[in-house]
Each structure stands twice: as structure tokens, then as C-alpha cells.
Amino acid sequence: MILLLDLGNHRLKWQLRPHAGALPVTTGGVGWDGDWPEMLATALRTSPRPQRALAACVAGSGRRAELRRFLEAQGVEDITFPMALAELAGVKSAYRHPSRLGIDRWCAAVAAYRRCRSAVLVADAGTAWTYDLVDGSGQHRGGWIAPGAETQYRSLHTATASLPCLDAETAGQADRSITWGRDTEEAIRNGVRAMLTGLLSVAEEAAHQSIGSGFAKVATGGDREALELLRARNYTIVEDLVLEGLALYAGGEHDAP
């Protein structure tokens, strides 16, 4: 049994698989502000103990150490926090220093390419909104990193004296049309939505200029409002795309780090 974990900035997700190439038998996720140790411990108790754990971590060294202590207490001894590689499962990194590419972006790009078997534009909508482009030969062309909706809302609040702090979940429940705001909250919400929509359009045009029009579009992430925008533009939404890529890493389809 193998345990795969995705440590995001605000949320922990996991899968248990009999082996790297198998379908998951247990999946779960919880925010860091929830009782993640109890939820993950419950998941581990209901399945055979994993012999191995791989964790894609962008949540910082503190969370990494906390998770390692937890897994060791659960009897998991083989614990790996992999870094992005120069090549994985047919995808070659564009980064001059491949290990500096975020492991979440790398796993998502590799998994999307494996799913589509073609050129693909990959969006990950979370605390940061990232884009990565992979061409038809598996060459990663590079990517973009921009603030996600929640980050933009929080930034407007902390960088100004009087603007309120909206949250992405509440804002996502409002009217999704982009109109001129008739109060401050509506103006902030629609302004952020307009920025994200503009980013979508520019990213797709940049991909077209780089590799032509024949590319698939795949998205993942925890920002529901952003995912609705992406779904409306015909992106295939894959909830556990990072964990899919991590399973490919675990399966040994790479050169040694």
C-alpha cells in the first residue's frame, strides 16, 4: 500500500493505493484548520498500513516536519518529499534548474499530459493561480504564477485602509456576471473576476502563439469560483491532478533525483 499526499497552502489531500499504478481505494482532504491528524489517522486505520508515503509539499517546512512526525508515529517509515525533475513520464522540464519548479505544478503538468497524450494547457486555481504549457512532444514550455482570487481579496484588504476583506467562497456564490459594481463589495468581486477572466484569455492566446491551436485544457485546484470560470471555457476539471502526477513519480517513470 502506498500513501500519496498533496500539502497545499490551505488544504491537505491524500490517496491510498495498493500500488502506484492502481486506482485509489481511499481518498480524502481537509483544511489545515480542521482536525487533519484525526481524519488522516482514521483513513489509515481503515486500510492496510502503507509501506511508503510520497508527499508533494508547497505548504512550507513546518507542515512538512509536522506531517513527517505524524506518519512516523503511524508506523510509516519510508517517507519521501520529492522535487520536480528534469524529466518525468515523457515530460521534459523547461526550467533552467528543474528542482526549483513547484512540485505541485510539475505533478499537475505531467498528469495532464499523460491523460491527454497531446499538447495541454494546465491551470491550477488555488492560493496562487498557475498555468503551465506542455507541447505535443512532451516539452514543458514554462508557466505563469499569479495571485488567486482569495489572495487578491486579502491583498486589497491588507494593503488599504478601508476596503473590506471578501472571501472567495462567499464571493463565488454571488452573481457571476462581470458588471460595474454598485457597492464596494460588488466592485471588488467583479474587479477580481475580470482580472481572472483576462488572465484566462491571455494565457490561451499565448499558448496558441507558442504551439498553435491544437491543445487540450485541463484544470485543478481548490478555488471554486475560478474553476467555474475554467469550466465555462471548456477546461476538463480533475480534482486530484497533483496526486495523479505523484503516482507517476512513485511508479518510477523518472530518472533518479
Describe the structure.
The protein is α/β, with parallel strands linked by helices and 257 residues long. Helix content is 39%, strand content 24%. The chain folds into two domains: 2-80, ATPase, nucleotide binding domain (Nucleotidyltransferase, domain 5), CATH 3.30.420; 87-148 and 188-240, 2-Layer Sandwich (Nucleotidyltransferase, domain 5). It contains eight helices and twelve strands. The strands form three sheets. A five-stranded mixed β-sheet has the order 3-2-1-4-5, with helices on both faces. The relative contact order is 0.16.
Q: Major β-sheet, in short?
A: 5 strands, mixed
Reading the helices and strands in chain order gives: EEEHEHEEEHEEEHHHEHEH
The CATH homologous superfamily of the largest domain: ATPase, nucleotide binding domain
How many domain modules?
2
Keywords for this structure?
single chain; 257 residues; alpha/beta; Nucleotidyltransferase, domain 5; five-stranded mixed β-sheet; 39% helix; globular
Short description:
The protein has 257 residues and is α/β, with parallel strands linked by helices. The protein is built from eight helices and twelve strands. The strands form three sheets. A five-stranded mixed beta sheet has the order 3-2-1-4-5, with helices on both faces. The chain has a five-stranded mixed beta sheet with strand order 10-9-8-11-12, sandwiched between helices.
